[in-house]
Predict the structure of DUF3077 domain-containing protein.
Amino acid sequence: MPLPGFHSPVDQPAYGSPPSDKLFAIRAGLSTEVALCNASEILESAAVSAYDCAEHLDGASRKQVLAVVQWVEMAQLLVDEALDRECPVA
């Protein structure tokens, strides 16, 4: 089930625009390579943002943000591995 405000390509009509109550839509026909590249870039940005946030925190709050960074980086490793398998560099 998609998150509120999001919808999957199957919810999108074959033509026209996505439903107006949706904030974000994945373009139907998006290639796996493009999807994985974008996901990798989003995760990289999330890690950088979290590191920047952690610099201004101390104690348990800092540790929590750094834990989130670790989860984001693990997700990025999975996405990058999938990208390498799906679209190997010659």
